[in-house]
């Protein structure tokens, strides 16, 4: 018989890795409370700490995090599928929660020393980010110095680190610069509340202000490495080829999922309200069921088809990229641009769906607390992001298909 004293010396076994079904169940459990806070989240201009705590409690930030640091190492389609579900309740929370979770995978591309800087002292640490190179970094002994303003740092109030993009002097071409991410702890920057917007208001995508901050050289990840999948971290986590998928085949899909989920949530809310709604207006006739109007039926069909197609395109492309890399094949330029096309087009479909619904909510739909019009504003806000803008991304695919050199980020 094993004594109590002996049991104390037995190391604790790690919790089993939750599968997609278990994670879906966890998200469903916290969805009502996040939905109940959605209007206040928008008014506050940031995701409340209660939402972040709930996401952390269900392991949301571990979904694509490397197992070396306590993560589940699921493929990105798992995170995106769950984020669509989360966005049904609150697109702002899904935008931030999805990005903070996705950035765990991005941090895994940095050298091991940088990953240990983030997670050794605080296994729960997460990072926000600002992707546009805001300034030129100054090279100094042992690293770089950064000063400037980094805007659109979604979830910065909820993060312990930030990925700040900057231009670094080229090691090979004199006078040339190349973009890179530099990892900066929250203690090294100040948050300037510049976020006062009409859509995705609750994301708290404020501006980070850095003043002569030193960043050691090991906290650097070049755009060239991460967009090609040839990162230091990919070698460190070589047992899982998913860490060598090009960044822009994965991360923007998480952004797109917020729009798709917002539209899906709007559809659910619209059906719940419209199925029982009786008209009151004299022009359209009163005491008629809206559900019996053919125009309403068509709007529901259009929204349903658009959401369904958007979801399928997003998940299909993610699974295709993962299958390619696991088969030992490189993700080609064409594959990468197909991913970018799917991400942007899924957002265009989400906007189409939310517009079809919002346009027929009547006067009640003008109320800022109405979830259908909030989803409409949020989906349109996602479409304004340069990585999600159909005009910008669609032309890039058209260039490829027509035999031209694609111009853009892929």
Automatic annotation (TrEMBL):
Keywords, ordered alphabetically: Monooxygenase, Oxidoreductase
Acyl-CoA dehydrogenase/oxidase N-terminal domain boundaries: 22-119
UniProt superkingdom: Bacteria
The Acyl-CoA dehydrogenase C-terminal domain, residue ranges: 254-390
GO MF annotation terms: acyl-CoA dehydrogenase activity; flavin adenine dinucleotide binding; monooxygenase activity
InterPro entries membership: Acyl-CoA_DH_C (IPR013107), Acyl-CoA_Oxase/DH_mid-dom_sf (IPR046373), AcylCo_DH-like_C (IPR036250), AcylCoA_DH/ox_N (IPR013786), AcylCoA_DH/ox_N_sf (IPR037069), AcylCoA_DH/oxidase_NM_dom_sf (IPR009100)
UniProt entry tagged with the keyword Oxidoreductase: yes
A Pfam entry, by short name: Acyl-CoA_dh_2
Protein name: Monooxygenase
Species of origin: Bradyrhizobium jicamae
Top-level taxonomy: Bacteria, Pseudomonadati, Pseudomonadota, Alphaproteobacteria, Hyphomicrobiales
